[in-house]
Write a structure and sequence with these properties.
Chitinase_II/V-like_cat, oligosaccharide binding, TIM Barrel, Chitinase_insertion_sf, lysosome, globular, 17 helices, 5-stranded antiparallel β-sheet
């Protein structure tokens, strides 16, 4: 998973309408609103009636029935107001050990948002897999080098393992020049050996590999022969990890997860990861971390992860939700973003980009905007004008938007992958 991802181009009709004419959204900063901690939704709201929640996509104003810890507050809804956000944004669940989601949960942690390390320790039992973003495999002269061990924190890993059973699978980004790596057998074997050796020496439970987006960027996936070699490399790496005993438990093998992007359209291109690729790799990969976010970009501002787009992506990969291979579906991890976007939408200027929870809080405190629910995408947004009178649109996850995606995953029988848990908010995370 890249630090920032290639973004899909689309603008929802609701935002187009607001951009063209609804100036009142930004000219009436009536309310003071702050972020509801996303972890409340993840750790409190999950045990909810799936079909009732799913219908929220077609309802304007809904309050969800959830467990008693928030049912009485009525804060999981589309018409959230600033007082509720101010009251609830820094609260987290007292029970940090019980899992309610029955499918795999992968969470990424990055060194540049170090809050994630603490969150991983507190909520260890909520996750099945934790992936610290530590490693890059690069070309060096005629060979390869695996960089990143200096990021590794053995003390943190030991503390995690003393508190829960989440598997530690550091992410490795394959930065090596693909034309060289994929064509040369010795380099492919060297790459696999470097990764497996690092797992053994550092006592990891396996790895998460990101390479598909890099290969697409280099253009190698447009070549049928290179594409086959790319898939074969991923398969060989997975098989090697599966044939290697876990350093912590010789009765189990190392695990392998692979990062894939969503298809760019219904008409699959050579560089898209499609259903045939999923079938080819399913026995050698334990989980596919699907990047179902970054749908929009500064040139085409809009929601981060529209629900209809998510369903289209899953249908392309898995087929109809009524007739899918449940074992294969369980290996697909729906990507959920714990960051948002602040887009410039005045005129043709464009601009803006990703924001974290701390950025979001600052914007809410300064501009006191009115939040609006876009039922087409299933996301909240607000508008504001900055000090130069330039209009912005801000999309950021809320309790309702996260809940809908979690329940969507449950209905499909798939897991989730979170990018990333250090971005979510800037205040206390104590249970």
């Amino acid at each position: 998973m890249a630090r920032r991802r290639e973004k899909r181009s689309s603008t929802p009709e609701s935002l187009k309408r607001r951009k063209d004419g609804d100036e009142s959204l930004s000219q009436e900063p009536d309310s003071d609103r702050r972020l509801i901690t996303i972890f409340v939704i993840f750790f409190i709201v999950i045990p909810v009636i799936s079909m009732v929640v799913y219908k929220v996509k077609f309802v304007d104003q809904v309050v969800i029935e959830t467990d008693s810890s928030i049912r009485n507050k009525g804060i999981v809804k589309t018409d959230i107001n600033f007082k509720e956000i101010i009251t609830e944004h820094s609260k987290t669940l007292e029970n940090s050990s019980i899992r309610h989601f029955d499918y795999p949960v992968l969470a990424y942690i990055t060194p540049w948002n170090s809050k994630g390390y603490d969150i991983a320790k507190i909520y260890n039992s909520k996750f099945t897999h934790l992936s610290p973003v530590w490693y890059d495999l690069k070309s060096q002269g005629n060979g390869l080098v695996l960089e990143g061990r200096h990021n590794a924190d053995k003390g943190w890993i030991q503390e995690l393992r003393s508190k829960g059973n989440a598997l530690i699978l550091p992410r490795v980004v394959l930065e090596a020049i693909p034309g060289e790596l994929l064509r040369k057998k010795k380099l492919r074997e060297k790459a696999i050996n470097l990764i497996v050796t690092e797992c053994k020496e550092m006592e990891y439970d396996g790895i998460v590999l990101e390479s598909w987006s890099r290969w697409a960027g280099y253009g190698v996936l447009h070549d049928p022969d290179m594409r086959k070699m790319a898939l074969q490399f991923v398969k060989q790496l997975g098989e090697t990890l599966h044939s290697t005993s876990s350093p912590r438990n010789n009765q189990q093998h190392m695990q392998f997860m692979y990062v894939v992007g969503p298809p760019h359209s219904e008409n699959l291109q050579m560089y898209d990861f499609g259903p045939e690729d999923l079938q080819f790799l399913k026995d050698s990969v334990d989980g596919f971390s699907l990047m179902t976010y970054d749908f929009s970009n500064p040139q085409n501002p809009g929601p981060n992860s529209p629900l209809k787009w998510i369903d289209l992506t899953l249908k392309l990969l898995l087929g109809s939700s009524n007739n899918i291979d449940s074992n294969l579906a369980r290996k697909v991890l729906l990507g959920i973003n714990f960051y948002g976007n602040d887009f410039v939408i005045s005129g043709d200027s464009g601009g803006g980009g990703a924001i974290t929870g701390r950025d979001y809080l600052a914007l809410l405190e300064k501009h006191k905007p009115t939040l609006h629910w876009d039922k087409e995408s299933g996301e909240h947004l607000f508008m504001y004008r900055d000090d130069k009178n330039i209009k912005h649109a801000v999309f950021y996850p809320t309790l309702m938007s996260i809940l809908l995606r979690l329940e969507n995953a449950r209905l499909w029988g798939i897991g989730i992958s979170i990018w990333e848990i250090g971005q979510v908010f800037g205040l206390s995370t104590s249970p």
